[in-house]
DNA sequence: GCGACAG
DNA sequence: ATCTTGTCGC
């Protein structure tokens, strides 16, 4: 079943409000915990799909057993677009529906893997940080693109990494998850160290460039979006 | 001032 | 994110 998500009271309306909210919430970030060890407990992927025509957004949360990468729980939520896409403000577009999907799970999420960034963000408060602070859960971000950040080329072997840099600051890591394939861009969200975030990412990529969590969540939210838009528009 | 820019 | 056919390769 798919739950319905509304836009929370007090949700930012303008970019100025949204940026101010990020600056407030950043004070609650916890960056001095290592986080759960890879291969133990649960790992949960979250992702969102949009339909620009109808303004509908669908989110999915998929819980995997961290040791076997088997799916142990799934949930989806549907809502309306809560903010336009603005680079640096992605969280305001995705979080209400993601929270609804997470809340509908009947198992503990454990570590949450986001499709996007955490600390690698203009104000050091990307989607993964935001979701972590709001839920209290350990979170990391694994993105497909380097955004505005720079990095040297990691070695071509799986497991090779290079610092993801914002000027002099290491805000994440370009991590090769498959031999000879474009790296992914890992950054810390909340209550997880960067080393551990990379270890989790490697544990979640035995076969593909992207983490199993992201792949499962991506497939599920697309399915949920199709069903939601099909319901709204009969043939 | 003008682009570029996670999804 | 999303619009989209065929095609190369394991």
Structure description:
It is found in: Cytoplasm. It catalyses: Endonucleolytic cleavage at apurinic or apyrimidinic sites to products with a 5'-phosphate. Its main location: cytoplasm. Belongs to the endonuclease V family. The record marks 85 as: Interaction with target DNA. By secondary structure, the protein is an alpha/beta fold. It has a single domain, classed as archaeoglobus fulgidus dsm 4304 fold (2-Layer Sandwich), CATH 3.30.2170.10. It is 28% helix and 27% strand. It has helices spanning 15-25, 90-103, 127-135, 194-203, 212-232; strands at residues 2-4, 42-51, 56-65, 71-80, 111-115, 139-143, 161-166, 169-175, 184-190. The protein has a nine-stranded mixed sheet with strand order 1-4-3-2-5-6-9-8-7, with helices on both faces. Strand 2 (42-51) and strand 3 form a beta hairpin. The longest helix is centred in the C-terminal third of the chain and has 21 residues, at 212-232. It is globular and about 50 Å long. The model has no long low-confidence stretch (mean pLDDT 95). The structure holds two DNA strands.
